[in-house]
Every structure is written in C-alpha cells, then in structure tokens.
Design brief:
Length: 197
C-alpha cells in the first residue's frame, strides 16, 4: 500500500470503537508506529527489544516508552523514545493520527501515534534497548485474514492476536495495535481472523 491510498483510507474512516478493560493507576506511555515510504509501498518499522530489558524483553515492539516529566505531551514522548531507540530524528516524522490508548500488563496505558517517516540518516539501534530494527510491508499487516487470534479467559483482554511474518511472530500489544490499525483502514474486514482455539 502506498502513501496516498493509506492516507485516503485512514482519513476516510473513523477509528473503530473498542472495548478496554477498566484498570486504575496505569502509567502513561506512547509508541510511534512509523511507516517508511519505499518504492514498493509503505513499510512498518518494528524493533526486537533487548533481552536485558525489564519489561517485554525480546518481544517485537514499536519505538516508545513511558512518559517522562520533561515531555510536553505523549506525542513528544513517542518522538523522544524513537530518537533514543532507533536514531529517528523528530524532523523526519510526519504525524498522521493516533489510535485508541492501549493498556498493557506491565501497568502502562500506551498511546499509539501513526506517522510517515523519511529518515535522512540510517536508523541505528541503541543496543541497551533494541536488539534489531526491521520492516514489514504495511500491506501484509493490513490483511486481517492473515491475523491469528487466541481466545483467553480471565486475562486483561479476551483475545491475543498473532501476526507471523517470515521467521518472526508479532504478538501481544504490538499485534493488537496493528490489528486496530488494520480495522481502521479496512473496517469492512474487521470480523476476519484465523482462530487458534
């Protein structure tokens, strides 16, 4: 999917309604969902978190983290974290919009910001936080028929999404946010997914 088509569809539809668990005392955080423009279409930039991190070690995620006192707002949090983690300069980021806040089991409430990025310098992983930077075609992410869902009982959410890509498996909050992005862009395909149980 190319920039023009994505922007048209993202702006055409309202964000889908979602049901969230009611949790208290969650700490604010933000992530950037960076879409890299390439001749073959938009690519989602993802990271594999360092195995040494306290929360979500080794998992696939977006650049982001908790809000610091000096951040003016959560968008600034997302930009700061992306700069720290993958050396993405804020001037190279064009905000498209945001998704619904997303509670996670590490007691954060995460605000996802969708942006198109045009890095003028190569992205570089901070080894303290990021083991690897990689991309996945946005068109692949937006195919709800390729999303797997595992239903749970007595958990923060009643289902967990999985999105396999090559040798990787995107799951948890990252997959949940990507699923909500897909549902925003293709609302007519929201019921589609492949059950695992």
């Amino acid at each position: 999917m190319h920039r023009h088509e994505f922007l048209r569809r993202f702006q055409l539809y309202r964000a889908p309604q979602v049901t969230r668990p009611s949790l208290k005392r969650l700490r604010p955080a933000a992530v950037l969902i960076p879409l890299l423009e390439t001749p073959n279409g938009l690519q989602v930039i993802l990271t594999q978190r360092s195995a040494q991190l306290r929360h979500h070690a080794g998992q696939i995620s977006f650049p982001g983290g908790r809000q610091e006192p000096h951040d003016a707002n959560l968008y600034e949090t997302a930009l700061r974290e992306a700069h720290e983690e993958i050396a993405l300069h804020p001037d190279d980021v064009e905000l498209v919009g945001q998704l619904h806040d997303y509670p996670v089991i590490s007691n954060f409430i995460v605000r996802p910001y969708v942006a198109i990025v045009t890095p003028r310098q190569p992205l570089v992983a901070d080894p303290r936080e990021v083991a690897e930077i990689f991309t996945v075609p946005l068109a692949t992410i937006l195919q709800q028929r390729q999303h797997f869902v595992f239903r749970l009982q007595r958990f923060m959410y009643d289902k967990v999404y999985f999105m396999p890509y090559q040798q990787r498996n995107i799951w948890g909050a990252t997959a949940g946010m990507l699923r909500e992005l897909a549902d925003h862009v293709y609302p007519d395909q929201r019921p589609w997914s492949r059950p695992l149980n």
